[in-house]
Structure formats: C-alpha cells, structure tokens
Specification:
The complex is a heterodimer of chains A (328) and B (324). Helices cover 37% and strands 22% of the residues of chain A. Chain A is α/β, with parallel strands linked by helices and 328 residues long. The longest helix of chain B has 26 residues, at 8-33. The mean pLDDT of chain B is 97. Chain B has one domain: Thiamin diphosphate (ThDP)-binding fold, Pyr/PP domains (Rossmann fold, 3-Layer(aba) Sandwich), CATH 3.40.50.970. The chains are: A alpha/beta (328), B alpha/beta (324).
Chain lengths: 328, 324
C-alpha cells in the first residue's frame, strides 16, 4: 500500500495486466508520450507492436478496437478527452454496443475504452462533458467511474479481465490528489458500490467526480447533526441498486449527485429506479444535484457556477431533511 | 497472378458457389415478394463473382467483414446455407438465433465477422482484425467488402492512412455496383475510387468485378502481398447491381432511378453468364456443369424448407447476449 495519484494507479493496473496477459494491446493518440500519464512507460516495456500510437482518427480507432477484440485481442483504446467519444461514436454505438447481440453471442468484445471527463480545468465545452448517461443508454457497455486512486486500480484490473466493452471515465478535474493504492493483484468487481460514509438520516449517491464534494458535504452536515449514508456506485453499468435501496431503506431520503447535465442524467435514472422499486421506503421527495442544461463554460467563475459543489449538496440535503424535521 | 492460372476444376467450383448464391438470392426475392420474410433484403444478384473470387483464397482463420448486401459474402466463405436462410427468416435456428437477420448474417467460426447495416461499418472492424492478426504474428489477413457508397465515408481514409502506416494485412474490396442506394455513383462520387488509395502509398486498381477469373487473380495477388508483410491493397471491383437497392423498393419509390433497358443491357455481362462462357471455353462439359447446378439447387431448396419449418425464437431470447 502506497499513496499514488489516480493516473499512476491506472498506469500500474494496466502495466500489471499487460504483464499478466500477452493478448492486451493499446491503441491511442500519443500513448507513447502519454500526456495524461496513464500509459506512460508502456511502449518501452511492451514494445511498439502492442502499444500503438495512432493518428487522430477516432472513427477508425474505436472500430478497430471492436475488430481486434472480436478476433482474439484484448484492447485498450485510449480516447483522451471524453468529448472525443463523440467523434468515434459510430463504432461505439453501432458496433461495440451491439455486435455481440446482433451475432447471437458469437463474439466476445474485451475492450477498455478510456477517457477523461468532466469540467474544472477551464477547457470549455468541447473538453468537459460528462457523457456517461449517453453511454448508459446504449446497453451492452459497462462504465466504471472511479473516485479514488485505489478504486481506479481495482476497477481497471477488473475491466481488463472482463469480456465486454467497458468505459473507464476518469474525472479530469480531480487534479493530482493522492490516495492509498493496494499493491499487486487487487481487483474490485464491477457492479459493487461502496458505502463511503455510514449514516441514517439521508442517503447521498455521488458519481465519480462528485464523490469528493459529497464527502465534504457529509462533514458539514455532520456538524449540523445530520448523518449521511454516502454511496459511491463506482460503476454506473452495472449499477448496484441493491446497495442504494438498502441505504434508502434505512434513511428514507435520497439525494443523487451527478456531473452530467440533469436531463436524462445518471441521477435521473437512479431517482427513477428508486421511486419505482422503493417508493414505499421514501419519506421525502428525491433530490437531484446535477449540471443544469447548459454547456460547460470556460471562465473559472462560470464553471464554478455550473459544477455541483459541497454547498449545493448540503442545500439539497437540508431541503428534504429539514422538511421532515430531521435537522435541528 | 494471372487469370490463366485457374484450373477448369477451380473454375467449376467457383461457378458452383456463384450459382448457389444466385439461387439463394432469387428464392429470397420470391419469398420476400410473397410476404414470408419479416424484414427487408438487399440482394447480391449480379455481384457474385466478387465474393467468390476473393474468398477462394481465404481460410477459416482469415477474416471478412461485409455489407448490408452480405448474403453472398457469407455463402462464399461458409457452407451453412440452412443457418443463413433461417436467420433471414428470423428463426431460432438462424446463425445468429434470429437476432441479426439479413443485414447481420455472420459465421464467426468461419472467419465471417458479419454483414453490417452501417454503410462503411466493416472497414474499421476489418482493420482491427488485421491488426490483431499482425500483432499475434500470424499470416492471416482481413478483407473488407464495401460498396461505392461507403467509399464516401470518412472512415475509409482513416483506415487507409493507418493501414499504410502499419502495413496492415488488410484488403479493401470496393464493390462499385453503379448505385449508391438510389443515386448513380457518378452523381455522388468524385474521381476514381481505386485511386483514393494512391495518396496513402497503398496500391489500388480497378478490376472487372463480373469476371470471376479477374477477381480471383487480383485478389490472389493482394492477399499474398498482405500475408507476406507487404501491407494493404484497395481493389475497386466494377460490377452492376441487377436488383434494386432493396427488394420491394418500387412500393415506396415515387419514380424510377434507372431504365429497364439499362438493366437488360448490363445483364449481358453478368457474372454467371461470363463464368459459363469461360467454363465452355475451358472444355468443361455441359453435363458436368448441369450436375453441379442440380446439386446446388437441391441444397438451396432444402435450406429454404428447413428455414420455413424452423421454430421462432423463444421471446426470452431477446434478453440474452447483450453481455458475455
């Protein structure tokens, strides 16, 4: 166990898995230099045959990942910024998400698509989207959204052993924070949420980048006498609804926090499912804290106004907690 | 490789396969018109020489990706006539269990990654299969069949660039059948398609796609180059679509987009007729040809009976196979 940054944890996971499994290949723009840092050192260690620096051609890259995976390779396809998923989207939506199904299960598609998502770095609207809800709607694709370096390692290793297309969506705005990363063969099963704080008054589900402000909100709420059960789903497909519902069964109150735009967000889907499966458990309306339906602006002042923070999460919790008299 | 190298035995074998494809497609036209098929079909009639001439060089470990007009490619590489027809019928016994239908017939065990409903959708998949074959150090190749319409998709240029850079064992086979859906190719396509490879340093050439001997020779050369590390080739197979873009298109088109006289004129050089003439020229007897035709007719008839009598999938099967 040592403290590492998220990119280091991802890099460690990829390196260990490539060492373990000779069928893993890497495709991506500048993966030899690795401006992000997550593929650093791979080409030196595994050679240019397995680590392919590609042209800026997302259409062919995202489709080649499918073709290579269907014919015996395990593929890491590095798409850099999440918004470039859109330029490679045809093969993701029409091939990766559907080929196995259309062929009646004749192929497996072990692909890890990687991208950085979300705002917080003043790179404006074309480099700041959180597009996990769009990917969730495709079906046929798993999505991991680690909030800590340790989770990143465990989830990436599990994703690289999965026989399906998996997206690793890494929060770009979390900076270089350090976290404990277990050494060696550490995996986290996809579809298993973690209860980061145990509490009885309100359930807060926070996704990916939103776990950090949610943790801060938990501290502030604790000071006001409200104990929060904070759930980090870690993967949004599959979504651990059992863990969310078990928490709501205790608290009777739910706030979901998501950096996606609110309409059809993951927060919306979680809220709908809890209302559908757990309406009888609820003592108050479900709250959603998400990005309003605007594009991500450039100026840090404007960006701060858009991205949910601890204060907005506290407000959302107080709204449903106060209304039922939990808070003092 | 020269067309003259083809033995009369090989020619008869290829003729038989072309004849099989023609039989399947003509029967599909009939049953489609009779309302027996659940979905649309895009028929390969008039283009059979291309799939057969190319696949004659491929093993089960070589990969092909094809198009929405993909029955011919499937039948050229896989012997599973029954499973393919059953798939087009949407039955449980179909090669994809009824999940894919006409536009997604695939037999992965025979190196067929599938027909594809997205125009140009197979190009990147085949490039990936070629990368996989190369990375694993095999001598296998990947072939993508695509139409003249797909030649206008940007992914072709991305694939040519990357195939040239990495010398991928990839053969790009453009089937230029004169029509991009309902638009004459020349009205939507500039220049020569084969020449689109040239700026990338990839060899490209036009081929008479109706003469199976020419297809066989050109494909053989390109595939051998790919196997020996020489990289990609773009072959523009010039052919003609004798049926419409999709069966029953007259039911929704407000006017015709080509004349009957044009189609009749192009029928003079259709691939089965040319292959028949070549067989006769090579001294193959009418009796030997008739024997092959009868065998194929019987196999196709049996496949349609099998498909029509096959059970529908259980509704629950709709919820399987999203994930491995």
């Amino acid at each position: 166990m040592a403290k590492k940054r998220m990119v280091q944890a991802i890099n460690e996971a990829i390196t260990e898995e490539m060492e373990r499994d000779g069928s893993i290949i890497v495709l991506g723009e500048d993966v030899h230099i690795s401006p992000v840092g997550d593929t650093r050192g791979l080409i030196e260690r595994f050679g240019a045959a397995r680590v392919r620096n590609t042209p800026i051609s997302e259409s062919v890259m995202s489709g080649m990942a499918v073709g290579a995976a269907a014919t015996g390779s395990r593929v890491i396809c590095h798409l850099f910024y999440g918004n470039f998923i859109y330029t490679g989207f045809d093969a993701i939506a029409n091939q990766a998400a559907k080929l196995r199904y259309m062929l009646g299960g004749q192929v497996k598609l072990p692909i890890l698509y990687m991208a950085m998502i979300g705002g917080g770095r003043s790179v404006a609207a074309q480099h700041s989207d959180s597009m996990h809800p769009m990917l969730m709607n495709l079906g046929g694709i798993k999505i991991v959204m680690p909030a800590s370096p340790g989770d990143a390692k465990g989830l990436v290793k599990a994703a690289l052993r999965d026989d399906n297309p998996v997206f690793l969506l890494q929060a770009a705005g979390r900076g270089g924070e350090l976290g404990e990363v277990p050494d060696g063969d550490y995996t986290i099963p996809l579809g298993k949420a973690e209860e980061k704080r145990v509490g009885d008054d309100v359930t807060v589900v926070a996704i990916g980048s939103m776990v950090k402000p949610a943790l801060k909100a938990c501290d502030e709420l604790a000071a006001r006498g409200i104990s929060v059960s904070l759930i980090d789903p870690r993967t949004v497909v599959p979504m651990d609804y059992d863990a969310i519902l078990a928490s709501v069964a205790r608290t009777g109150r739910l706030v979901v926090v998501d950096e996606a735009r609110k309409s059809c967000s993951a927060a919306s889907e979680i809220a709908a499912t809890v209302a559908e499966r757990g309406f009888h458990l609820l003592k108050a309306p479900i709250g959603r804290v998400a990005v309003e339906d605007v594009a991500m602006p450039y100026s840090p002042v404007l960006e701060k106004a858009v991205i949910p923070d601890a204060a907005r999460i506290v407000d959302a919790v107080l709204k449903i907690a106060v209304s039922r008299g939990v808070a003092q | 490789m020269s067309p003259r190298e083809i033995t009369s035995e090989k020619l008869l074998q290829m003729y038989g396969r072309m004849f099989r494809i023609r039989q399947v497609e003509e029967r599909l036209a009939t049953v489609q018109a009779a309302g027996e098929l659940p979905g649309p079909v895009h028929l390969y009639i008039g283009e059979e020489a291309i799939a057969v001439g190319v696949c004659a060089h491929l093993s089960d470990q070589d990969w092909i990706c094809s198009t929405h007009r993909g029955h011919g490619h499937f039948l050229a590489k896989s012997d599973e006539i029954q499973k393919m027809v059953a798939e087009v019928y949407g039955r449980a016994t179909g090669v994809c269990g009824g999940k894919g239908g006409s536009m997604h017939v695939a037999d992965v065990s025979k190196g067929i990654l599938g027909a594809n409903g997205i125009v140009g959708g197979g190009i990147a998949l085949a490039a990936g299969a070629a990368l996989s074959a190369q990375t694993r150090g095999t001598r296998n190749v990947a072939v993508v069949f695509f139409g003249d319409g797909a030649a206008n998709q940007g992914v072709l240029f991305e694939a040519l660039n990357i195939a040239a850079l990495w010398r991928l064992p990839l053969i790009l086979v453009c089937e230029n059948n004169g029509y991009s859906e309902f638009s004459p190719t020349a009205s939507v396509t500039s220049g020569e398609i084969w020449n689109r490879a040239t700026p990338f340093g990839v060899p490209g050439r036009p081929v008479d796609g109706n003469d199976v001997r020419e297809v066989w020779a050109a494909a053989g050369e390109a595939i051998e180059r790919a196997r020996s590390g020489g990289g990609a080739t773009l072959l523009e197979m010039r052919t003609y679509r004798l049926r419409g873009h999709v069966e029953a298109e007259k039911s929704f088109l407000s006017r015709s987009y080509r004349s009957d006289a044009e189609v009749e004129q192009r029928r003079e050089r259709e691939p089965l007729r040319l292959a028949m003439a070549a067989l006769q020229g090579a001294g193959v007897t009418a009796d030997a040809i008739a024997k092959v035709e009868e065998k194929e007719r019987a196999a196709v008839r049996a496949a349609f009976e099998y498909a029509a009598e096959s059970p529908w999938p259980a509704p629950g099967a709709a919820f399987e196979h999203m994930f491995a």
